[in-house]
TrEMBL record:
InterPro entries reported in the protein's UniProt record: Metallo-depent_PP-like
Name recorded for this polypeptide: Phosphoesterase
Organism placement in taxonomy: Bacteria, Bacillati, Bacillota, Bacilli, Bacillales
Length: 169
């Protein structure tokens, strides 16, 4: 049975992100190779991955080369750095689906690039990226930026376990 994973903000090809976010890489090539290895260490070919934006700063050919090396059926929810390119560009780069807007998943989870406004009375959870090493308080926000998950996609089952205690699942 396929698993579902989430991740965001790889920033492939963005050398400055290494310093901005204190990433443990000496250069973009090491960062790229390590992040591809970590993705493929958990994601199988039959799995589905929601990438919540800011995937690559590279040209289409280099981006397509990276996408082709990543396991799974890949869905991109465009982030602020992705929106300078069209949905078609990202599809041609190898994503299986591309959304310019947040997606409601499982009737309960909002998948978005930027965190969405959620008050404490809303029964929803926002799974998001964008804020890198920062984290919002409370269990209504799950930040899936690579910095929080050792550059490895996190399974939807692991996210559900963070939100809903075992006895309630």
């Amino acid at each position: 049975m396929p698993n579902v994973f989430l991740i965001s903000d790889h920033h492939f090809g963005h050398a400055s992100i290494i310093d901005f976010e204190s990433r443990p890489f000496t250069n973009v090539d090491e960062m790229t190779e390590t992040m591809i290895e970590k993705w493929n260490s958990v994601v199988r070919k039959e799995d589905k991955v929601y990438h919540l934006g800011d995937f690559s700063f590279l040209n289409k050919d280099k981006t397509a080369s990276i996408v082709s090396k990543l396991n799974g059926y890949k869905i991109l929810i465009m982030g602020n750095h992705d929106r300078g390119r069209t949905r078609r560009w990202w599809l041609e780069a190898g994503f299986d689906e591309v959304s310019e807007h947040p997606i409601v998943y499982g009737g309960f989870f909002f998948l978005s690039h930027e965190p969405m406004y959620m008050n404490k009375h809303m029964p929803y959870v926002n799974i998001h990226g964008h804020i890198h090493g920062q984290k919002y308080e409370g269990n209504q926000y799950i930040n899936v930026c690579v910095e929080h998950w050792d550059y490895t996609p996190i399974s939807f089952e692991a996210i559900k376990a963070l939100v809903v205690p075992n006895e309630e699942q």
